[in-house]
Prior knowledge:
The chain is mainly alpha-helical. It has 13 helices and no strands.
Amino acid sequence: MKHPIHxxxxxxxxxxxxxxxxxxxxxxxxxxxxxxxxxxLGKMDRSPENYQxxxxxYRKSLEFNPDNPVVNMNYGEFLFYRNRVIQAVNHLKRAIKxxxxxxxxHVLLSYIYLIKExxxxxxxxxxxxxxxxxxxxxxxTNPRHLEALANVYIVDERSAKALKAYNLALDLAPxxxxxxxNFAMFLVTVKDKKYRDPKRALKLAKRAEALSGGRKAFxxxxxxxxxxxxxxxxxxxxxxxxAIFLSGSSTETLIYKKNLKRFExxxxxxxxx
Length: 273
């Protein structure tokens, strides 16, 4: 149910800190130490083979302190990307209950409520309420905050605001290849075509590829899209094939193969008399 351009969205820009929400007596030292370990383990590598372990660690962390806003936020975000949306919202709401100015929770809840496809929680009024809070608490010196806000604006079809947020994020973090990659994809897929800029997207996509080391399939896929949008169909085909070669999962491979067929069709049509 995720928006198609957000394959690489990074919304977890939380700095992990132990909130100190426990009794500091010596008798509870062991519990506190183990709790810190569990929080850290919950943020381990999110490859599919680790999903069950991560889920276990988050649930165990919440047994120690069910109201900790940091753990509830991170677990909610994890559940969302596992398509367990109702559970995700419950944990995000619990985090806000104990930390009302939690920007990350507000922006993610707004994003969730705005998604229409296969979403039983679609609710524009709820999304608007959380977006107002996100805009109030956003740190405009934090590129991750700005990118997350841009993602909400995209789903809400507020392209001008999304473009502004991405530009501000880029000024703050000119070497953040994940954000640059997402910005490039936005510039070639934004619904309102007057905001599309294939030339700039191609420049950004090439920069993201260089900064990332040229071995990340999803970034090369963005580069292929930028070439296609720029009319460079042969280059789009070549990059799509490279993305397939580097793909780390069957789901990714299917997406990239579908894109390759689209690029090959465009190349054939261009080459035909």
